[in-house]
Write a sequence for this structure.
């Protein structure tokens, strides 16, 4: 069976990660959360307590190892061999991840790693620039969107499940909008819908139905090329 690359892009809270995970599992594909990689770089930088500049980041990138591993509890993100899956979702990382992701040397290093991870494998990759930059020839490109209300509600629920209660709905919505603006207006690989991507608005969809839509689109392509 020939395997394809499925690129899922979209703004924060549009459902990329949860959709990508389900689709990958159903197709027996690997799942790569590129946001987790940028988050791990951000966490590593926060730990240095150094200013944010090219020199500090160049040194940092030379010395860090980022790995995504499958585990019984789902995918885990490792930074220098340690599981940082929870830490990379902190409010602090959320605050700095966009400025760090906009830096050219960070993007070059991560895109390189992402392409290597997907070599010869059926893969579902989610992020901001997968269909435009990382895999412009991906067989299936999906662009997920959702209203700001739906996205902020999802993030609020995610925080509540983790016991983080220090942010209100309005604060979360503001942060998401700021991150969207930063991600879509940056110079290198801004968040944008690839011309050939299929857009799905998930505001009123259940996770199950959006995953099913993507899976069906993928199966159609897979069956056609085999
Ligand atoms: O889960 P959520 O949508 O909030 O974010 P994420 O996918 O974990 O990505 C976090 C941040 O990493 C984004 O806001 C982008 O600034 C950056 N990112 C990126 O620049 N390129 C990617 N391919 C993935 C994430």
């Amino acid at each position: 069976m020939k395997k394809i690359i499925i690129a899922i892009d979209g703004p924060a809270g549009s459902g990329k990660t949860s959709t990508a995970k389900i689709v990958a599992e159903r197709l027996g594909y690997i799942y790569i959360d590129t946001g987790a990689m940028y988050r791990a770089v951000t966490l590593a930088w926060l730990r240095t307590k150094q200013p944010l500049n090219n020199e500090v980041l160049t040194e940092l990138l030379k010395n860090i190892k980022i790995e995504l591993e499958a585990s019984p509890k789902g995918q885990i993100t490792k930074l220098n061999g340690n599981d940082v899956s929870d830490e990379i979702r902190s409010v602090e990382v959320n605050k700095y991840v966009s400025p760090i992701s906009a830096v050219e040397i960070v993007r070059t290093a991560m895109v390189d790693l992402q392409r290597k991870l997907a070599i010869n494998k059926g893969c579902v990759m989610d992020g901001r620039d997968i269909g435009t930059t990382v895999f412009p020839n991906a067989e299936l490109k999906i662009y997920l969107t959702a209203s700001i209300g739906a996205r902020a509600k999802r993030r609020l629920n995610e925080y509540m499940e983790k016991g983080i209660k220090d942010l209100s709905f309005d604060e979360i919505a503001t942060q998401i909008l700021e991150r969207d603006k930063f991600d879509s207006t940056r110079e290198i690989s801004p968040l944008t819908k690839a011309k050939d991507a299929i857009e799905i608005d998930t505001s009123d969809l259940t996770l199950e139905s959006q995953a099913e839509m993507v899976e069906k689109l993928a199966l159609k392509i897979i069956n056609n090329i085999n």
In short: The first helix runs from residue 16 to 27. DSSP finds nine helices and eight strands in the chain.
